[in-house]
Specification:
Elements: H1 3-30, H2 32-57, E1 70-72, E2 75-77, H3 80-103, H4 116-146, H5 150-173
Antiparallel strand pairs: 1-2
Helix pairs in contact: 2-3, 2-5, 3-4, 4-5
Amino acid sequence: MDNGQMAVAKAAQTIRLSAGWGFIAGQARAHKTLLKFILVGLLGYLLYTATLFAAYDLSLPFMPDKHTSLHMGLFTHSDFRLLIGSIVAAEVSITGGFFARDLWVFTDWPTSDTPKWVKFLQYQAKSLVSTLGILTVTVNVLTPEVGLPHYIATPIGVAAAFAWNWLWESGVIWRRRRQG
């Protein structure tokens, strides 16, 4: 290949790279709210995981021993410490997630004039299904019953709850304000 052909090939490669980055940047701008939602979800995952680690894996004198059974009427939970730790971790993640979403994620569009305290209650109610329902049940079934470590069961539960969260938060809690 002579110098002229190499220069043309290099220019074509530069144009393709530039077009590729332009496409990625355009998609990021078009889906800015969703990308922020995903980032805050990752933060919530880290909060959940760190809190569960602290509550379950660290030796805390006020917590029951690992694998302590608890009979709860219709069923017995084989690890009461895991149940307590996952519920506390869920609420830490829920509360942190609400403030991050309210102050940063859903600021790209005008939202309904619903008072913040109502949004907080809506968020808590939505989280009863997603975080306390889907995530906590997933962790508390896959860990003691299937034998998966909680650090593997947690991302499975998070993935299961993701779609539910996006639909409720973008469509109900922080829905776009109607024009007119």
